[in-house]
Amino acid sequence: MISLAGRDILHAWHKFLFTGIGLGLLIGVTLTMAGVYRGMVDDAKVLLDNSSADLWVVQQGTLGPYAEASSIYDNIYRSILGMDGVAQAANVTYLTMQVQHGGRDTRAMVVGVVPGAAGTPGWPRYLLAGRHITRSHYEAVADLASGLRLGDTVRIRRNDYHVVGLTRRMVSSSGDPMIFIPLKDAQEAQFLKDNDAILGQRRRTAQNPAFAAPGVVNAVIASQSQNPYVNAVLVQIRPGYDPKQVAEPIRRWQRLQVYTRAQMEGILVGKLIATSARQIAMFLVILAIVSAAIVAFIIYTLTLGKIREIAVLKLIGTRNRTIAGMIVQQAIGLGLIGFAVGKVAATVWAPFFPKYVLLEPGDALRGLVAVVVICILASGLAIHAALKVDPAEAISG
Amino acid sequence: MANSNNRALSGGVEGHHGIVIENVRKRYGGGETAVDALKGVDMQVAPGEVVGLIGPSGSGKSTLLKCLGAVIEPSGGRMTLGQRVIYQDGWKIPDLRALRRDNIGFVFQAPYLIPFLDVTDNVALLPMLAGVANPVARQRARELLAALDIAHRANAMPSQLSGGEQQRVAIARALINRPPVILADEPTAPLDSQRALGVIRILNEMAAQFETAVIVVTHDEKIIPTFKRIYHIRDGRTHEEAGEGRAV
After folding, report:
1. Angle, in degrees to the nearest 10, between helices B119-129 and B163-175
2. Residue B124: CB partners within 8 Å, gap ≥ 6?
């Protein structure tokens, strides 16, 4: 049997093509939304991968260091180092903030890492250019997405940092590029007060009658001038050890919260980006409904334009299922044109998105199936209209 | 012989005896608002015969045509196609769609060709719908187009044809399944005299060649003299009279 739908599409190809392009741009947006979600999940996983940690030790009762604020003493890592199964432990701080470079602001996650070598927990795993931080102060390794280049100077709070190395795909779960600086500098940046605030704090402390004893005020002020806190201790475990077995004594004896990789992934994906995921899911549902409405309207309009031909087809003995099949095939044809346009559009504009867009083949396949299903459902209205056509309409009078 | 084979293949009526309708009635609605569109119509058209059906607006022409075309069901009477009763006092054959496809050809005032199919496929569509293989159906269509002297337009789209050419393609489509009956509803209305007479000549030739009974509903004064027999319909009743049977 001849493909009536195929012939109609070929005959009115320009109508189907232009409609398909319009629909395709909508499908492209849908695929991109799915890609944004995949990108967020991937960013979260990359964040964990790049931290080179098996365990995250954070303040008790918090979901830190990425999902909640966490503050622990910076000497705890020594106790952790001595525990069974721990290979390496290193302090780390994370602070998302605006940094200044070349007269403009860039949002970045500033990561404070301890002096060491490549492979130390928290350190960038690989560099695209330059070298790792070797000095104790004022050197930085930046992600390419920050816009910084080797030799650039970036201002973080009141200090300037010299970019000595560049890395790639080192971003926070929000997609902000990371800038690695020495831990001491990061602690200072995180907790440093401005001069007026420091003066005010000292005045208040001196006026406190509780510190009236000789030497106490100076001791208190000295303690206030230091920042002995970090956000987390990243732990690498020895080969052959189970992360849960290593985590349990730390949790018990150090009275800290310890997360394994799986738990941390659950926090990032299940909690940190959950709201964004729900928003994206809502957008996907809305876009699917809009797409279905557009396909339904277009196919319905096209069908109404062929009522006389449908009446003739029915009069000369065409089965209802042949006519319904023609309409469904046209709807699917329109959907396939739209999907092809949408896939190309999403692939073309994804690199220009400010967030990482990960277009997975599996999502594309699921999108294709969804488009076909939506087109079949959307053709129902047109089929209903076509089946209602009386073959007598083909006979005048 | 070849015609009989073709007819048997397409599910046509064996031992064809034209179409006979006896005392066919059609009532629309019920109660006090009921309208009797047909009040007992009798008609008989033999194979190979072309008859005219003439009547003013509102006389019941369209209703009769729809009953003949198995599009609507009469309220009473009897209709026989060949030797097969297709309707009798409330009983009808179950598959009217297949009956129309295999036994009745339609030619309309406007050709109503499928705009997205070329001429060959417009004609070949019916046998394709009946399950005939596409190459076979197309070959039959091309042969019929050649018989109607329009083979040179076989690959054209309907929009590229003149009105007369479109009507000839419509006639080819009506004939492709070798139906025992062709119903032509004002087939010459949009055509000038020469083309109108050309269409009637073709219908006469095809009726003779394929032993098809042809009923032409018309108001067209140009073609009325060509019929040997004419049925007049008025107020839902027919009466028959001899026509001039002028040669075309």
Report:
1. 20
2. A2, B134, B137, B138, B140, B141, B176
**pLDDT tens string A116-151:** 777 889 898 889 999 999 988 999 999 999 999 999
Q: What angle is formed at CA B83 by the lines to CA B77 and CA B89, rounded to 5 degrees? A: 20
B69 → closest Cβ in A2, A313, A395: A395
Q: Can you say whether the dihedral through the CA atoms of A203, A207, A208, A212 is positive or negative?
A: positive
pLDDT of residue A256: 93
A6 lies within 8 A of chain B by CB: no
Higher-scoring residue by pLDDT: B12, A292: A292
Cβ distance B129 to A7 less than 8 Å, yes or no, reads no
Q: Which residues on neighbouring strands pair with residue A143, listed in sequence order?
A: A167
B47-69+97-242: CATH topology is Rossmann fold (3.40.50)
Partner residue opposite B185 with nearest CB, options A10, A317, A395: A395
At A24-52, the pLDDT tens digits run 999 999 999 999 999 988 888 888 888 88
**Which ranges of chain B have pLDDT less than 50?**
1-14
The Cα–Cα gap between A367 and A294 comes to 17
pTM of the model: 0.74
**Predicted ipTM > 0.90:** no
Of A2, A312, A390, which has the smallest distance from its Cβ to B121's Cβ? Answer: A2
Within its chain, how far is the Cα of B245 from the centroid?
A: 19
Question: Whole-angstrom Cα distance, residue A6 to residue A336?
Answer: 13
Question: Which among A396, A394, A397 is positioned nearest to A309, based on CA atoms?
Answer: A394
Task: Give the H/E segment covering residue A256.
Answer: none
What residue in A sits closest to B124 (Cα-Cα)? Answer: A2
Closest CB from B66, B98, B128 relative to A2: B128
Asked if A396 lies within 8 A of B128 by C-beta distance, the reply is no
DSSP class per residue in B53-100:
EE--TTSSHHHHHHHHTTSS--SEEEEEETTEEEEETTEE-S-HHHHH
Q: What is the DSSP string of B21-53?
A: EEEEEEEES-GGG-EEEEEEEEEEE-TT-EEEE
Per-domain residue ranges of chain B: 47-69+97-242
Q: In A, which residues are within 8 Å of B98 by CB distance? A: 317
Tell me the per-residue pLDDT of B49-84, one tens digit each, with 9 for 90 and over.
999 999 988 888 888 988 998 888 899 999 998 878
Strands (E), chain A: 55-58, 72-73, 86-101, 104-113, 129-130, 139-143, 153-156, 159-167, 178-182, 229-230, 232-237, 257-260
Pairing type for strands B104-107 and B91-92 reads: unpaired
Cα separation, B248 vs B181, in Å, equals 21
Domain ranges, ordered by start, for chain A? 4-44+275-394, 60-192+227-255
Task: Flag if A396 and B185 touch (Cβ within 8 Å).
Answer: yes
Is A14 within 8 Å of chain B by CB? no
Residue whose tokens read 């719908």: B129
**Quick one: closest CA in B to A390, which residue?**
B71
Alpha-carbon gap, residue A344 to A337, rounded angstroms: 11
- What is residue B83's predicted lDDT score, i.e. its pLDDT? 79
Residue in this structure with the two tokens 């831990």, named with its chain if needed: A183
The separation between the first and the last C-alpha atoms of chain B, rounded to the nearest angstrom, is: 28
